[in-house]
Amino acid sequence: MRNVRAAVCVACGAEHEAGNDTYTCKKCGGVLEIVYDYDYIKSRVNAEKIAARGEFSIWRYLEFLPVEEDSKLGPLRVGWSPLYRTEKLGEALGIPNLYVKDDGINPTSSLKDRASAIAVVRAARAGRDTVACSSTGNAASSLAGGAAAMGLKSFIFVPGRAPQGKLTQLLIFGAVVISVRGNYEDTFKLSAEAIEKYGWYNRNAAINPYLSEGKKTVSFEIAEQLGGLLRAGGGGRGAAVSAGGFAAPDYVAISVGDGCTIAGLWKGFKDLYATGFIDRLPRLVSVQASGCCPVNRAVETGRPIERMEENTLADSIAVGVPRNGAKALAAIRESGGITVNVSDDEILAAMRLLGKNAGVFGEPAGVTGTAGLKKAAEQNLIPAGAVVVSVVTGNGLKDVASAQRAAGIEPSGAEGAADSAGAGAAGSPALLRIAPEMKLLEEEFARRGLRTQTP
Ligand SMILES: [Zn+2]
User: Fold this and answer.
1) What CATH number labels 83-109+212-403?
2) Which residues surround ligand 1, an ion (CB under 5 A)?
3) How far away, in angstroms, is 32 Cα from ligand 1 center?
4) What is the per-residue pLDDT for 339?
5) CA of 337 to the centre of ligand 1 (A)
6) How far, in Å, CA of 316 to CA of 163, rounded?
7) Which has the minimum average pLDDT: 103-112, 162-171, 255-264?
8) Is pTM, for the whole model, over 0.85?
9) DSSP 3-state assignment of 213?
10) Residue 186 and residue 192 in contact, taking contact as beta carbons nearer than 8 Å
């Protein structure tokens, strides 16, 4: 990889050669960061060249990625998810220049596909036939899907609480699933031991420094797509677009669990800044669940990260011991970032807000960034004219039980219980359960004051 200079420890600064089995620091055990030769990258590519490409996936930005030039790239189309200008949602949140990046449209419906794409390409290039990871769910399903597409076997460790939707994805993708009776920490430890023992390719994002490199492509896309939208007149901010057509937002909000995703997000903007694609950096809005916010707590108190209980329905970010905490802290601090913690009720409300005002259906952790933006706006932490991007990290169908809670209906299986003549006794005011008679429908409309169109 001519574009990669080294893998550097974020704790002690020790430099390592970026090889196939380069994981954590050999000196201190710290996490590593892939460092690039920006002069080399600049000699190979610029904004105009990228804009002219017909490749609409993470491989659009190949010169910035840690893969050998002769690698076989996977067949799945990962990345190039849409960036929407969401005026109605912006109004609801009090953020007029709001954009939503919907990463739930990836092949396995989450942002983690960006990291898994790098993992399976690197594993195949290194001649491995089996990949493995521990995950709260999405990294697992993305690895299983990516591995299946590349013809690799996968062994996946998940905590017992992983939602059914994610477990189902794993089994459909042909993974061997080890459901661990314990929390994420227990799951991670067992997977680490097994990976060591059996010599599988390690896709644990906290250990494998190449994975946040995949995640950073979300920032490349935000900058390129935002540049296009701003030039087209969105928000009257065309002046913020660089000569090459890329633009950095003022703020980017994202949910934080293990810390790897926000670290990747920041790395992406730093890469673009270092190579002159953008002329300033955004501030990060790090959003965690109040019931599990060890990263934000460390930022707020200035103390090291301390273990917390995993008390939130947003399973993807229920991480009591963040494995990439150091990178996440550095990203938030370097960007002059904001931390916001939100309750489960605020997360469920954000699911409804995004759905109703933007047509975007996110899972609880997927919408946590949006929930945090709402709160930050209420607390006047976001200036009125700011250009703000909210990254939705995963699709709502992955966790139907939580979506049903957000929608105010009984979890599936209990539907028959509420099906009576007096429709909707409990639950969602928008759900009418009635017998098939027009008269009953009219009565119910009248009772609820629903306005209907007349011919
Ligand atoms: Zn070190």
Assistant:
1) 3.40.50.1100
2) 9, 11-12, 14, 25, 27-28, 30
3) 8
4) 98
5) 25
6) 10
7) 162-171
8) yes
9) helix
10) no
